[in-house]
Write a structure and sequence with these properties.
alpha/beta; Rossmann fold; six-stranded mixed beta sheet; three-stranded antiparallel beta sheet; 9 strands
């Protein structure tokens, strides 16, 4: 199966600042790739570039064999920002019905999506009344309308307690088992354990790319925080 996303020698510049610096990365189909790194490392800029929302200075990006922003990709790629992009005065069900109406085809019904993200019990509650965990799941639900093949999730677990974070990662793995390709960013190194592959970022570059086991073997460290620090310091 061909790779879902390929970035080659990607450069993004804002003013005189280089945000991404000759970045190359490949994400295989059906994989959860964890994009890990501190705030300001370029994670969001990379995700926006892949989603076709960021102008790039140079380099190439291929998403399902197409350039980002191509019309044919619009129903195949879903992007969730750090802040939940939902209507606070609409119920969960109304939010999903609205977003579903924007697509020519939906592979799942609104109720099927609500069931999948465990929001059936609160489907008639307005978004403004939801807990933090419920709001995160609603934001995820909006990415499941249409027929997306790739899900790009920017810090989806930020601010959640450990139990909710684990529940959300269990859902991500369930979606990957259905064939979705997922790029999930986080600054919580412990979340590396839930990913099929990892890309560690710092200062607009990929420090390392591989499985958690491969990165531990490469650095001789056990904890992901120590792995990251070892890679920053270099040999």
């Amino acid at each position: 199966m061909p790779s879902a996303i390929i970035c080659k020698d990607l450069v993004v510049q804002r003013g005189t600042n280089l945000i991404l610096k000759d970045l190359s990365l490949t994400i295989e189909s059906g994989q959860i790739l964890g994009l890990l790194g501190p705030s300001g490392s370029g994670k969001t800029t990379l995700m926006r570039s892949i989603a076709g929302l960021q102008k790039i200075k140079s380099g190439e990006i291929s998403v399902l064999g197409m350039k980002p922003g191509t019309a044919a990709l619009r129903e195949k790629i879903a992007y969730s920002t750090q802040t939940a992009s939902v209507y606070s005065d609409l119920t969960c069900q109304e939010n999903l019905r609205y977003f579903a109406s924007l697509f020519s085809h939906n592979e799942k019904t609104v109720d099927e999506i609500l069931e999948e993200v465990d929001l059936i019990a609160v489907r008639n509650q307005v978004a403004a009344s939801l807990s933090g965990g419920e709001l995160s799941r609603l934001a995820l639900a909006t990415t499941l309308v249409g027929s997306p093949e790739i899900l790009i999730l920017d810090e989806p677990t930020v601010g959640l307690d450990p139990v909710l974070r684990i529940q959300l990662w269990e859902l991500f793995n369930k979606l990957a088992a259905q064939g979705k390709t997922m790029l999930v960013s986080s600054h919580v190194m412990a979340e590396a354990e839930y990913c099929h592959g990892l890309a560690l970022m710092r200062s607009g570059r990929i420090l390392a790319h591989g499985t958690s086991a491969e990165l531990r073997e490469q650095t001789g460290k056990e904890k992901m925080e120590e792995v990251f620090i070892s890679l920053v310091k270099g040999p």
